[in-house]
């Protein structure tokens, strides 16, 4: 099992847990918890594969992602009253998953010979589309459309990977690691220091 694949599974588990917790907070039943856990963890990559024409999507080529997502969501549902410990580390696992998903999505787009915009968008979609679906299904404004440094970190990481791949001779594995670390560090710093992008209201205060 490669290091990147291990991080991918860790990110999948973290995203599945965040989806399940969101469903529980909205008082959904077991099916809702499992569904939100699954779409949060696998929705972005599935949409990416469909847009790239890589069918069947990755979750059907390697069903480990499906089983892991469902298992994590079920675990969160069963032990929901004993999972206070998750609220602290989960954002950090989420950051690792975010960085991993960005480089996997961008890297796959590069294999399909997409340009800068297409490659970066595939990376951002892989990392954020599942969370957007989760938030929409739980009747919330998607986090990536709010102030948090989330999608912007993905844009930075995807762009770095494209530039390293296109204009340098750095080994691909090192390019993946550098881009993933950029996303993870930006996200962790945003959590630590409460970084946020400006809103329109910030410029029009009484």
In short:
This protein is mostly helical.
Summary keywords:
206 residues; mainly alpha; 8 helices; globular
Mean pLDDT: 89
From the N-terminal CA to the C-terminal CA, the straight-line distance is 57 Å
Tell me the number of helical segments per DSSP (H or I, 4 or more residues long). 8
Main structural class: mainly alpha
**Rg:** 17 Å
Strand count, sense and closure of the main sheet?
Answer: none
**Bulk shape:** globular
Low-confidence stretches: none
- SSE arrangement, N to C: HHHHHHHH
Share of β-strand residues = under 5%
Written description of the protein model:
With 206 residues, the chain is mainly alpha-helical. The protein is built from 8 helices and no strands. Helix 1 (3-25) packs across helix 5 (90-111) and helix 1 packs parallel to helix 6.
Topology:
Layout lengths: L2 H23 L4 H23 L5 H4 L2 H15 L11 H22 L4 H22 L13 H17 L4 H22 L13
Helix pairs in contact: 1-2, 1-4, 1-5, 1-6, 2-4, 2-6, 5-6, 5-7, 5-8, 6-7, 7-8
């Amino acid at each position: 099992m490669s290091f990147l694949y291990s991080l991918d599974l860790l990110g999948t588990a973290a995203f599945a847990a965040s989806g399940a917790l969101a469903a529980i907070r909205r008082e959904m039943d077991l099916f809702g918890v499992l569904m939100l856990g699954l779409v949060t963890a696998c929705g972005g990559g599935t949409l990416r594969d469909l847009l790239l024409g890589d069918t069947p999507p990755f979750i059907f080529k390697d069903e480990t992602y499906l089983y892991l997502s469902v298992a994590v969501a079920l675990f969160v549902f069963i032990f929901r009253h004993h999972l206070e410990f998750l609220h602290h580390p989960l954002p950090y696992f989420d950051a690792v998953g975010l960085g991993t998903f960005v480089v996997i999505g961008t890297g796959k787009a590069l294999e399909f010979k997409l340009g800068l915009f297409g490659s970066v968008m595939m990376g951002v979609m892989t990392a954020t589309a599942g969370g957007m679906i989760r938030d929409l299904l739980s009747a919330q404004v998607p986090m990536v459309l709010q102030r948090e440094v989330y999608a912007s970190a993905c844009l930075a990481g995807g762009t770095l990977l494209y530039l390293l791949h296109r204009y340098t001779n750095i080994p691909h594995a090192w390019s993946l690691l550098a881009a993933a670390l950029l996303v993870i560090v930006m996200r962790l710093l945003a959590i630590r220091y409460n970084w946020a992008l400006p809103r329109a209201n910030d410029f029009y205060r009484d």
